[in-house]
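step=predict obj=Histo-blood group ABO system transferase isoform X3 n=345
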Amino acid sequence: MVTALGPYGSNVFSLISTWQREESQSQDTHSVVLQRMQPEKKESSERDCHLDTCRIPEVPRLVYPKAQLLKPTRVDVLVMTPWFAPIIWDGTFDSAILDAQFRNITVGLTVFAIKKYVVFLKLFLETAEKHFMVGHKVNYYVFTDQPANVPQIPLQEGRQVVVLEVRNYKRWQDISMHRMEMISNFSQQRFLREVHYLVCLDVDMKFSDHVGVEILAPLFGTLHPGFYRGDRQSFTYERRPLSQAYIPRDEGDFYYAGGFFGGSVPEVYRLTMACHQVMMADQANGIEAVWHDESHLNRYLLYHKPSKVLSPEYLWDEHMLQRPPLLRKLRYVAVPKNHAEIRNR
Ligand SMILES: CC(=O)N[C@H]1[C@@H](OP(=O)(O)OP(=O)(O)OC[C@H]2O[C@@H](n3ccc(=O)[nH]c3=O)[C@H](O)[C@@H]2O)O[C@H](CO)[C@H](O)[C@@H]1O
Ligand SMILES: [Mn+2]
C-alpha cells in the first residue's frame, strides 16, 4: 500500500488523523482543518493507505481489457465536465481497476428514516446489501426518531448498521433540510474517524444495479433525472435574490438531485455545514428555498465544482420518466410513495 505520499501531503486523510488528535483541544474544527492543510504535515496511519482520485493509485497485477484511444466507449453522452470531472456512465469505468484502487476503504452511507419513512428502510437496506459497494466495508448510518423500528436485516461481512437517534420535525421540508445539520454534526462527532467517504441518500428509493467505488471522489453530485436534458432556463434553481440559494439565470452547470451526494468526510462536512448555515440565514430572513436543501446543494455545487458527477443511472424514477436508450442501467430508483399519506403525519 501507499505510505509515502510524495508531494500530496495535504491530502484529506492525513488531515483526518491530525484533525482527530486535535479535536479535543478545539471546538472550532473548521479552522483546524484549514490550519492542518500544510504540505509538510504528513501523518503515516491507516487512513493514509487510502487512495482516491487525487492520488496516484498503486494497484497489483491485474488483467483487464485495455482502453482504446480511438474507440471511445461512450459517444452518446458527455463523459467529462468542462472542469475535468468525470461523469459516471455505464461503459466509462472498469470495476476491476477501481476496486483494486479503492481497496481497504470504509464507506459511510447516511440515510434518514423519520416518522412514516421508516417503512422504506427494509427494501433500501436489503437492496443496498445486493448492490451498494459490494466487497467493501460499509457503515449504514440510519438517522431515525424510532430506533426500535429499524429492521434487522442480514449483512455481508464488514458491514454494519449504526442507528443514530435524532429528533423529528413537524414539516417534511424541515426534516429534509435538517439532514444537512445532522450530517455535519455527526461528521465531526464520529464519521471522520470511522469512514473515509460519505454517501448521503434519500430513503424512499431502492438499489437495482451496481453502485460501487466508481462514484467515490472528494466531492460528488448526481444529475437529477428530471433535468439532465434541459438547459439552464429549465432548472428549478432558487430564483429569488433574497434567498441564499439564489442562482442567476445565466449561471449553472447541471441540476443536481438532493437525494444523492457525497465525498470525503471533510468535504461532506464543509458542504453540509455550509448548506445548514445558509438555510438558517434564509429562515431568519423569512424565506425558504423553492426545493429546500436541494436548492442550497445546487448553489453549493455551482461554486464548489464537484470532482465527479454521477449520471442519472444513479438516480432514476421509472414511474415519472420514460427510460431513454442512453440509460443502460438503472442503479438506484425511486420507490413510489403516496405523498398525502406518508408526509406530514
Ligand atoms: C431523489 C431526490 O433528489 N430527492 C430530493 C427531493 O425530494 P423528495 O420528494 O424525494 O423528498 P422526500 O420526501 O424523499 O424527503 C427527503 C428525505 O427526507 C427524509 N424524510 C422526509 C420526510 C419525513 O417525514 N421523514 C423522512 O425521513 C427521507 O430520508 C426522505 O427520503 O427534494 C427534497 C427537497 O425538497 C430533497 O432534496 C430530496 O433529497
Ligand atoms: Mn425522496
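step=describe
Confidence is low (pLDDT under 50) at residues 1-53.
step=end
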